[in-house]
């Protein structure tokens, strides 16, 4: 069930939310375990077309939760700035993706995702990427989250209009 946005005046377009994800440094992924307990973890990621890719080791709580329930919520926050504009507030941008995570088993897709991650975080070392990917191939898992919904909101500084 989707909820209405409480502050509709702060909604940003799906395109702006996608741009926020495309340029974000890291995301937080929320999962739910078989016991119903939530778990959130920060992750590096790459966005390719309509899929958010993450990489991880082959075991852990996140993977246990994904096995129990593949639905995830991904959150990214852009630049923030605490301000006092007549009250305590913050200028911010944030976006949320909901979707289902799946283990990437296709080798070409897995390699493309890992190369995209390397290029996003260490583009100056791409000459070493393929060798490093090959070295950790067997112990590295890649999950893809296909975007089911994307939304975002922001409180931005209002532009100053000069009437000179």
Structure description:
This protein is of the alpha+beta class and 164 residues long. The protein has four helices and nine strands; from the N terminus they run E-H-E-E-E-E-H-E-E-E-H-H-E. A hairpin with a 5-residue loop joins strand 2 (27-32) and strand 3. The longest helix has 15 residues, at 107-121.
Chart the SSEs and their pairings.
Blueprint: E1 11-12, H1 14-23, E2 27-32, E3 38-43, E4 46-48, E5 51-56, H2 61-68, E6 71-77, E7 81-84, E8 88-103, H3 107-121, H4 129-136, E9 141-155
Antiparallel strand pairs: 1-9, 2-3, 2-6, 4-5, 5-9, 6-8, 7-8, 8-9
Short description:
Helix content is 25%, strand content 40%. It has 164 residues and is an alpha+beta fold. The mean pLDDT is 92.
Distance between the termini: 50 Å
DSSP summary: helix tally: 4
The low-confidence runs, each spanning 5 or more residues with pLDDT under 50, are: none
Q: How would you classify the helix and strand content by structural class? A: alpha+beta
What shape does the CA trace take?
Answer: globular
Biggest sheet statistics: 9 strands, antiparallel
Tell me the Rg in angstroms.
18 Å
Work out the number of β strands.
Answer: 9
Quaternary organisation of the protein chains:
single chain
Per DSSP, what share of the residues sits in E-state strands of 2 or more residues? 35-45%
Mean pLDDT: 92
Main attributes of the structure:
nine-stranded antiparallel sheet; alpha+beta; 25% helix; 40% strand; 164 residues
